Amino acid sequence: MSRPNSRDRALRERAAAVIPGGMYGHQSVGLLPDDYPQFFARAEGAHLWDVDGNRYLDFMCAYGPNLFGYANPEIDAAYVRQLGLGDTLTGPTELMVRLAEEMVALVTHADWAIFCKNGTDATSMALSTARQHTRRKTIIRAKGAYHGAATWCVNRPAGTVPSDQAHQIFCDYNDVASLEAAAALAGDDLAAIFAAPFKHDAFIDQADPDLAYARKAREICDRTGALLIVDEVRAGLRLSRDLSWSRIGVQPDLSTWGKCLANGHPISMMLGADKAKKAASQIYVTGSFWFQAAPMAAALETLRLVRDTDYLERLQTLGDRLADGLRERASAAGFGFRVSGPVQMPLFLFEDDPDLRKGFCWSSEMLNRGVYVHPWHNMFMCAAMTEGDIDAALNAAEAAFAVLKQQGPSLEPVAKMSFLTASHR
């Protein structure tokens, strides 16, 4: 149900006049149910408020950056203190060295760090570093995996040419035979294998990394001299206090990080092993805002909380409570309902829902009850959530399942999703 007389609707109309498409990128709500707000006014802890004053328990966490809660007082205080001293300067501050030291100490495979702003910055640097290190061109990455919005990796063709994604071979995630075939096709030109921390493609069930697949990626890189790159931008610090693949005993040569590194303040990075340090020093990468001190101060405080609190264990506990409760309530209502992926980053999908009409209806009913979930993208838990928040979400889910059951076959198809689901499934 759209809100034709809302402030959100008025802002959309104004935006359409001055912003191409009215909105762009992953935070556009054009592919969400029609009643989802596009504009927000404020956020605190685990909640955010849209411009019409509606409050939501937010399971998107700004698409990942919110780890310790919106407006976390300790992290934001560190940011503001540094703003008073200097932020965007002619050169970096000492904080850059401290942050590199702390990340190297935290992440097992890392010997050095380079900082930037967005996940795409980091993955593009990793690509260049691998090609410089090996003096080769070809990379392998999994079908459907997301590594950013640069022309070499963007998942939509508008504005690109075939040569933008040349020298790339695609394999199936967690399929050892497919990975081996891709490596054989690359031959002696393999520069890198890109790997997601787990299979977190849109529209389909998520899957943990298979140990045999991860080990095969490592073995191929060791045998050929290519670099193994794990893209932690989405999952970093939510699954482990180390690199996520450390949990299965496989270490990359490079890793890319972003999202919650500074709890929403703009910073990302590439970490690397000594073997790739020379190549990383030879590529030319920079940005006017890459060396800002205030986000680095926020990142240092975020890392203190990572080390000194039980945030990770609480995310696991709350995630289990949410996943178990949703399965129970869906089953009681007679729905096949899947919660896949790590519980800290769950994806919710209905059985027998090829055009997402069930998912859209249920998500809208959740939104109407003050819970912001996503019908086809993975979600995120944050450390500001409480057991009470999870229980409130489960109560909303039970009521939403009841409405969905009542509507049954009368649900309208979701026409806006047809082209995307066809291209991603």
Automatic annotation (TrEMBL):
PROSITE patterns: AA_TRANSFER_CLASS_3 (PS00600)
Named cofactor requirement(s): pyridoxal 5'-phosphate
GO molecular function, one term: pyridoxal phosphate binding
UniProt keyword annotations, A-Z: Aminotransferase, Pyridoxal phosphate, Transferase
Top-level taxon: Bacteria
Family according to the record: Belongs to the class-III pyridoxal-phosphate-dependent aminotransferase family.
Name of the protein this chain belongs to: Aminotransferase class III-fold pyridoxal phosphate-dependent enzyme
